[in-house]
Amino acid sequence: MIGEGNFIYLAILGMALTTYATRLAGYWLLQGTEIKGRFKAALEAVPPAILTAVIAPTVFLQGPAEMISGAITLGAALLKLPLLATIAIGVGSVAILRMAL
After folding, report:
1. Closest CA to 69 of 47, 43, 100
2. What is the pTM assigned to this prediction?
3. pLDDT, tens digit, 9 for 90 and up, residues 37-56
């Protein structure tokens, strides 16, 4: 019998396998296909779109500190700062704003 705590590990393993399978399926479906033009642009737009869909509810539904720090982080990203610096600015600004507000 599987213990209750082991279900967590099974869930993580299942999610990892599913993620890996979708990547493999993408490569398999597109093998031999030249990706260019609008199709390439559409594929390149997917990761930012997913990140926006995940992050936007948190930014807009939590409170003023999160909204302001979201705008600060967006500004840092638009300045083309390195990813680690942008993340540090976002985390730091939300922490400071939560204490201040």
Report:
1. 100
2. 0.57
3. 998 888 888 888 888 888 88
